[in-house]
Amino acid sequence: MNLFRLVKRDTITSMHHTFIRVIAILIAFGLSSLLLVFTKSDPIQAFYNLLIEPFQYRSGPIEIIKLTTSLTVISLGIGFAFKMKFWNIGAEGQILLGAIGAMVVARSLPTMSAVGLLPLMLLGSFVFGALWGLLPAFFKAKFGTNETLFTLMMNYIALNIVKTLESGPWKDPKSFQNTITPLPDNARIPSLFSEIPWSLLNAGFGIAIVLTAFAYYYINHTKSGYELSVVGESESTARYAGMNVFAIVMRTMIISAGICGIAGFIQVAGNNSTLSSGVAGGLGFTAIITTWLSKLNMFMIPVVSFIFAIIAIGKDGLITIGIPSAAADAIQGIILFCVLGCEFFIRYKIVLIKKSDEFISKVRGAA
Amino acid sequence: MVAILTESNCIELKNITKTFGSVVANNNVNLTIQNGEIHALLGENGSGKTTLMNMLSGIYSPNSGEIKILGEVVNGSSPREFINMGIGMIHQHFKLVDVMSAKENIVLGQPGSIYLNARKMSREISELSEKFELNVNPDKKIYQMSVSEKQNVEILKVLFRGAKVLILDEPTAVLTPQETKKLFKILKNMKENGCSVIIITHKLNEVMEISDRVTVLRKGESIATLNTNETTAKELTELMVGRPIDLSIERKQVNKGKKLLKINQLTVLNEEKIKALNNVSFEVFEGEILGVAGIAGSGQKELCEAITGMQKVKSGHMTFKEENLIGKSPRDIFKMGISMSFIPEDRLGMGLVASMNMIDNVILKSYQKQKGFYLNRKPARMLSEKLIDGLEIKTPGVHHPVRLLSGGNVQKVLLGREIESNPELLITAYPVRGLDINASYKIYDLLNEQKEKGVGILFVGEDLDVLLEISDRIMVLCEGRVVGIVEAKEANKEMIGYMMTGGDMHESI
Questions:
Q1: Would you identify the CATH topology of the domain B9-241?
Q2: What is the phi/psi pair of residue B302, to 5°?
């Protein structure tokens, strides 16, 4: 017989909300500690390395900011599509195409000054990313093609285009390996702070801040943002209200994929110094998780991306104290699982059968 | 098949309570079903009828209380157990596999050999069908059947599984008056064969016509059980609603104005390229309510969507005050300056955005009038507050998602928004479906108010009594054709029902 039943919560206080999340994090630490003890490591030392140590050495915070920047920009891009319930999992490919776009501009205008060249590279990356996203959007809007498969497949095409460029047309003649010629200094995003050289921290995170503000304003306070939310909730309501669903889908995907393209520009002209097939490096997939965890709240995206970046950078610190990298990945997984899993308990509560009668009388008393 | 019962009560429900979250669907409900009776379960939408019957068929299990079948307490919670104990439920939405034959559907899920003795099965099914006059052809595929035939297959299915108690959830909602009569004959036949029947309904005339006893549910509680021949429709309504209520709908006398909508030989194809509307011609004038009657799926949806520009038209003419509507999208119609309002059947899926709040729903039709990029929600917020006061919409506030409102309040948000846009033509499909009596009458009042203002109204309805009372003229559709348009004053229910099945209106009189 059933010993307990699940009851949907109507309301939850923010105190209770926080309490559940704190418990989830404690459980995550508990479970990870078990794993660490099993691998004969010291859990306290491990958590120190995971969460605190990245901030201790000079390049740690810089690495975290760089990763936060990339994740934020990509998540914002994905957020636009997700808000419309267009499951764009092709960010990876759109980043690569954006990177190609930036490279095309930089290679065709080698002598231009940075002031003129960088905005053009940004534009190039936006256009290339947008075009890559427009193709699945067109087929989805016109013929109802499944966008999940379509955008996923296009990632692999993008990856192989970059590999082709690496081994042939854009190959660095000075290199013995298949790498692309590095970008000259005028095509690199400068640093915002004079004391930190651009090779360490570039101004890419400025772009992320501007884009976050733009995304929030667009989705919450513009007619176009309202339209894409309506299309996401119900296409037939959108048609009923006289919206041009085709145009809205196309427009939104231009923005979504275009922003992912900009992330490609930040990667090649900022974080890396050239295009390579590893330039997206799975960020397009990680960003799906950060977007979802932010519950499509544009202001939450940088926060979640920051937490993600700490864990990702800190993970390397685990490996230095002899924890196998697979175990480090497992710990990251455990933390995510607990944090995501606690959402269930925020929405539902478990009531023991014995107690359910009391519960009913309480409810009845309240009503 | 029909067992001889020794107990006089075949079912006893004692103090049944069922909650969903903090919603109490059933609260200490008591119900006793005697052998060989037809027992009506009467109550408004949301009064807990279906929840109660779902517990009696093992789909839900109660939080507390006792279910006794033939004197035995049932503890189990699986539908199969209840089927084995002789309870058969016929749901409002049929649970049949379309591509299979009646026979295959009936034996589906039955224990026994995986090989079917097809001929023996067919014979048994035919015998049972004859005994209860169900007229089911065991080898006919479900998708080839009419709604009434499908219902008979459902009945046969539970009888074949040995049901002694039959539960029917709103069985007449999808039937014409003629089909309803046939169904009632079948039910009476069953009663004579010793079966008990529980019929869930909110239609009083049906309760009076068929039941032996009636139990009234209100807000999840069992209010009373009465012998039908000792009560009146008026008393039952009062029990159901909780206070006296006037059930007549007024037909306001308004002078017919100018011609608003003229439709000539309109043909529309549905997704399967079959004619959903076939050569439909009619006109709507200012200040009149044109009722549309027809069995579900006779082209009502396509008609509404064709007029509002959501559905492509194959051929024909359609003008609004002499302006052509053919080939125009909803956006084009809006840009032409035509003020047309449509209250669709699917309120939360088409008329409103379920997860959004009232402001964002009220702004849906007017935001395009705003200039520029920025969306100004202020006017919509003010309008929302005005609607909440004016139409007595019960909501915690303008920021509450409309999906969480009750059916009546959802409809008020939708109708309120549309009326505020000052329409010249109002198209409304099943505007009171799922609403309680109070909310329904509020909606009828609002429609009459619009009619007095000179608005032309196309009212697609399902309750013929209501259609006859509120409409000025009634157009009857059958399989996408207009069977006839009659003056409501001169029409009666039998005549409309006959026309709904395609019969000529002059033959029925």
A1: Rossmann fold (3.40.50)
A2: -65, -35
d(CA B397, nearest CA chain A) in Å: 15
Residues of chain A with Cβ-Cβ distance to B334 below 8 Å are: 242
- B9-241 and B257-339+427-509 share one fold: yes
- Give B404's pLDDT tier (boundaries 50, 70, 90): confident
Give the span between the Cα atoms of A96 and A100, in whole angstroms.
6
The rounded distance, in Å, linking the Cα atoms of A64 and B23 is 47
Report the CATH number that the domain containing residue A215 is assigned in CATH: 1.10.3470
What's the Rg (C-alpha) of chain B? 25
- Do the Cβ atoms of A10 and B21 come within 8 Å? yes
Provide the domain count of chain A.
Answer: 1
State whether A234 and B350 contact (CB < 8 Å).
Answer: yes
- A320 within 8 A of A49, measured Cβ to Cβ: yes
Nearest CA in chain B to A244: B331
- What is the amino acid identity at position B342? F
Per residue in B212-257, pLDDT tens?
A: 999 999 888 899 999 999 998 888 888 888 877 777 787 878 888 8
Distance from CA of B219 to the nearest CA of A (A): 12
Give residue B127's pLDDT band: very low, low, confident or very high (50, 70, 90). confident
Residue B91: φ, ψ to 5°:
-75, 165
The span from the CA of A238 to the CA of A248, in Å, is 10
The terminus-to-terminus CA distance of chain A in angstroms comes to: 30
At B386-400, the pLDDT tens digits run 999 988 888 888 998
B22, B351, B360: residue with CB nearest A240: B351
Inter-CA distances, A86 with A224, A257, B412, Å: 16, 12, 31
Give the pair of three-digit tokens for residue B277.
Answer: 């509307």
Does residue B2 surpass a pLDDT of 60? no
Name the CA radius of gyration of chain A, rounded.
23
- Residue A164: give the domain boundaries: 59-314
> What pLDDT does B365 receive?
87
Q: Express each pLDDT in A17-33 by its tens digit.
A: 888 888 988 998 899 88
Residue A11 lies in a domain: no
Q: For residue A356, list chain B residues with Cβ-Cβ distance below 8 A.
A: 19, 63-64
**Chain B 22-81, residues with CB within 8 Å of chain A CB atoms:** 22, 24, 27, 63-64
Q: What is the DSSP string of B160-191?
A: HTT-SEEEEESTTTTS-HHHHHHHHHHHHHHH
In a domain, A43, yes or no: no
The verdict on residue A295 lying in a domain is yes
Class of the CATH-defined domain B257-339+427-509: alpha beta
Contact state of A10 with B364 under an 8 Å Cβ cutoff: no
Phi, psi of B383 (to 5 degrees): -65, -40
Contact between chains at A233 and B330 (C-beta distance less than 8 A): no
> Which residues of chain B neighbour A359 with C-beta distances below 8 Å?
19
Residue A125, token pair as written in the block: 């990356």
Most confident of A324-338, B4-18, B347-361: B347-361
